[in-house]
Amino acid sequence: MVYKVLIADDEPLILKNLTQIIDWPALNCMVAGTAQNGHEALTILEKVQMDIILTDISMPGMTGIDLLKQIQTLPYKPITLLISGYDDFEYAREGIKNNALDYILKPIDYDELQECIERAVGQLDQQKRSESEYEKFQIYELMTTEKMDPEIRNKVGSYLAIALKSYEKNLESIVQRLHDKLYVYRMSDEEVIIVLTSPHDSIKEYALDLAQQIINNVSQKCVVSIGEHVDCLMDVKKSVSHAREWLKFDAFTKSTIITDELIKQEYKPKHTAADQMDEAIAYIKNHFEQDLGMEQVAEKVGLSVSYFSHLFKQRTGVTFLEYLTNVRVDYACLFLQNLELKTYEIALKVGYTDQRYFSQVFKKKMKKTPSEYRKMFK
Asked: CA 319 → CA 21, 257, 309, distances in Å?
């Protein structure tokens, strides 16, 4: 990724030189903003997430040191490099105490400055690698134990799961060679799960491209199914479940890449009653947070309400409403264990607009109120 740089200096000539003399693209950086005082710089930082800040110490209104102290209150703390005159040397030392990476004395030695920026970029690279490794571990924990570190569970981003079915021994290494920005998990001899992360809205196209490349590069038969796009780390499990559900339809389609669109187009006329129930269950699990009724699900799988009700009870052992309630309460339990949301917010996340009714349903199933249940995990 390209790192964003903010430059702050009250001398226009120095500001221009800092912007133009340094070969920023060669350092994997771009100047994303400039400011002539600390107040301007802080306003930019509150709107744009910067990675590196290069700031003069002596600026009118808000000094570079004051700016550095304000940066410590931001949720995302960029790496800061200070520019200091000899008279500001003690201030520069104070800057180091306030987490500045280093300082450059005027007149600026641009070779020395470039070395400082290279160290900042190296530190950012290492930080990104560590964050990526930790996120990969947390996603695995979520998939296997449904637990997640509370500090990152609400992380926002683009995520999408892909399920692979193949006995290709080198499948993980093949995938890793094809794309970055992904996590690969070997779940069994024939199943590999990939979780894509992307800052772009085109993550679904990104996934389809990756799926085709995987199929083109393996020697064994490989079937790929693509889950739904989610916008929160906590919801990755939902995308994984979705991808795994579609993988079950392998026997009913000739396609090696299975998506929900493909199933809608190709599979519906051919599937049996048992398959229709599998589709109904998958639909419930992926839409339980909506105002979901039996009529809607029956229409989705192409059955009359009465016949659907009979088949569903035969397949699951419970009525449609009981099954939907169980799914909602199970997710509510997961949210109560891991999210610091109020009861009414959790109620909305699992499909209930009435908090009181949600609490009654929850207590009937779990023998505890939502608050009592949450206390068990404090």
From this structure: 71, 33, 7
Which CATH number fits the domain that encloses residue 159? Answer: 3.30.70.270
Q: CA angle at residue 98 from 30 to 41, to 5 degrees?
A: 40
Domain that holds residue 174: 146-264
Indicate whether 169 and 276 sit together in one domain: no
Q: How many CA atoms lie within 13 A of 141 on its CB side?
A: 15
CA distance 339 to 232: 12
Report pTM: 0.49
- Alpha-carbon distance of 99 to 70, in angstroms, equals 12
Q: Which helix (H) or strand (E) holds 222?
A: strand 222-232
Asked whether 43 and 73 are in contact (CB, 8 A), the reply is: no
Q: Residue 77: what pLDDT? A: 84
φ, ψ at 11 (rounded to 5°): -100, 110
pLDDT digits (tens, 9 = 90+) for 209-261: 888 988 888 888 899 999 888 888 888 888 898 898 888 888 777 788 988 88
Q: Are residues 178 and 252 in the same domain?
A: yes
Which H/E stretch holds residue 10?
none
Let me know whether 324 and 346 are in one domain. yes
Burial (CB < 10 A; 0-12, 13-18, 19+), residue 88, is buried
Number of domains in the chain: 3
Query: Is the confidence at residue 25, as pLDDT, over 70?
Result: yes
| DSSP state for residue 148 in the 8-state scheme | -
As a whole number of angstroms, the distance between CA 290 and CA 352 comes to 8
Do 85 and 194 lie in a common domain? no
Q: Choose between 345 and 105: higher pLDDT.
A: 345
Residues 255 and 318 in one domain: no
Task: Quickly list H helices, the chain.
Answer: 12-20, 38-47, 64-71, 89-97, 110-145, 171-178, 203-217, 236-247, 260-262, 273-287, 294-300, 305-316, 320-338, 343-349, 355-366, 370-375
Q: How many CB atoms lie within 10 A of CB 302?
A: 12
Domain assignment of residue 138, yes or no? no
Residue 297: inside a domain: yes
Angle between helices 355-366 and 320-338 (to 10 degrees): 100
* H or E stretch covering 154: none
